Amino acid sequence: MGVESRLVKLPAELKGVTHLVIPGGESTAISLLLHSSELLEPVAEFAAGGGALFGTCAGMIILAAEIIDGRFDQVALGAIDITVRRNGFGRQVNSFEADLAVQGVSGGPMTVAFIRAPVVTRVGPDVSVLASVRYEFPDGGTREAPAVCRSKNVLVSSFHPEVTGDDRLHKLFLESF
Q1: 135 pLDDT higher than 80
Q2: Beta partners for 54?
Q3: pLDDT at 122 > cutoff 80
Q4: Mean pLDDT of 16-20
Q5: Between vectors from CA 155 to CA 149 and to CA 17, what angle results, nearest 5°?
Q6: Which tens digit of pLDDT belongs to each residue from 57-78?
Q7: If you write DSSP's letter for every residue of 6-53 in order, what string do you get?
């Protein structure tokens, strides 16, 4: 995509960064790593200072204001005013793909992968929902849940856009902030 990227594992490596992606993975492990690498405060300052942030799946959980079903010591940076439920779509066996039309993304719907994905249960007044997904939840019933949200300098998705090889959401991130 024509962007120079680097891995940020220590606070000094944030110097000069304008856009930061917090990827999917395991949100409690990412929380522990933010603490142990002393990145928690610098990332929070980056967000508060207007640095562009993109959180996918576990990254969405980390950037949220509130986490349901998280560990007591799990990080919620509050960079975007949403509440998320960890593994809200269910366990690994409940993973699925869906075609989503994302506001601001041209070229038709994106095929995306929800893998032990968080569910957005509350969206604050300053948050825009760019896409929602309809899904039959493990506890029964079909509901619609926000899947892509944006507020100020933050973009989050409850799915893994990188899994299907579609880079349009990453392009939206780079072009929006």
Answers
A1: yes
A2: 21, 155
A3: yes
A4: 95
A5: 170
A6: 999 999 999 999 988 888 899 9
A7: ----SGGGGTT--EEEE-SS-HHHHHHHHHHTT-HHHHHHHHHTT-EE
Domain ranges of the chain: 18-176
Alpha-carbon distance 110 to 166, whole Å?
7
What pTM was computed for the model?
A: 0.94
Catalytic machinery residues: 57, 160, 162
Whether 109 and 148 have beta carbons less than 8 Å apart is answered as no
Confidence bin at 136 (pLDDT 50/70/90): confident
Encoded tokens for 59: 């990254």
- Which CATH code for domain 18-176? 3.40.50.880
Which residues does 112 contact at the CB level (< 8 Å), separation at least 6?
97, 98, 99, 100, 147, 157, 159, 160, 161, 163, 164, 166
| Structure tokens belonging to residue 51 | 């640095």
Sign of CA dihedral 164, 116, 177, 17: negative
Q: Give me the amino acid identity at 156.
A: V
Place of tokens 């593994």: 87
CA 81 to chain centre: 12
